[in-house]
Amino acid sequence: MTSPADAAPPLSGAIVGPDGLARPAWASVDPMLRDYYDTEWGVPVRTEHALFERISLEAFQSGLSWAIILRKRPGFRQAFADFDPDRVAAFDEDDVARLLQDEQIVRNRLKVRATITNARATVALRQQGGLVDFVWGFQPATTPEPRTQADVPTSSDASVLLAKALKKFGFVFVGPTTMFALMEAIGMIDTHLLDSHRRGTSGVWGQNLGGQRLV
């Protein structure tokens, strides 16, 4: 008797590594990216501090590879007061000048200022229930079910709505594509390939359940 998995069409897209685990191509070679994929990417983030960091780093990643940002993450954390929203919100022009001289981070004036702006918006958003509840309020009812990386979209109706809503509260560098990447990274949607060993591990979405929400 065959199992449902045996009867299903063969899946493709993920690469099986020496450890026997299947991952997408982007996470199958570089040990740093592989560890990030295995331990962080797609894991639900539900604290203000951690979510503010993710939004900040996604903004810095715009136009660059995620590997660059991940390698510089320790430097970003040091430069931006460990992404404490209250401390970053208090940064002034002297801090901007300091950051633009810091080789440990991506020295982009617009993105540096955006991080400070978004810290202030994060603090202000507490009056509306806080950043975490606000962002997670845009979680869609279904999640993608990609067989290959080409099946993974780069934006969605939910990411468009989230981007617009954040902009209304003063956030910048939060376009639909950036917010879709955020939603992937924090487990709001599950874009792990169907044959990846990480598919369905967030506890938010089930594995191969037709996109049904579990919580």
Automatic annotation (TrEMBL):
<dbReference type="GO" id="GO:0046872">
    <property type="term" value="F:metal ion binding"/>
</dbReference>
<dbReference type="GO" id="GO:0006284">
    <property type="term" value="P:base-excision repair"/>
</dbReference>
<dbReference type="InterPro" id="IPR011257">
    <property type="entry name" value="DNA_glycosylase"/>
</dbReference>
<keyword id="KW-0862">Zinc</keyword>
<dbReference type="GO" id="GO:0008725">
    <property type="term" value="F:DNA-3-methyladenine glycosylase activity"/>
</dbReference>
<protein>
    <submittedName>
        <fullName>DNA-3-methyladenine glycosylase I</fullName>
    </submittedName>
</protein>
<dbReference type="InterPro" id="IPR052891">
    <property type="entry name" value="DNA-3mA_glycosylase"/>
</dbReference>
<feature type="binding site">
    <location>
        <position position="192"/>
    </location>
    <ligand>
        <name>Zn(2+)</name>
    </ligand>
</feature>
<dbReference type="Pfam" id="PF03352">
    <property type="entry name" value="Adenine_glyco"/>
</dbReference>
<dbReference type="InterPro" id="IPR005019">
    <property type="entry name" value="Adenine_glyco"/>
</dbReference>
<keyword id="KW-0479">Metal-binding</keyword>
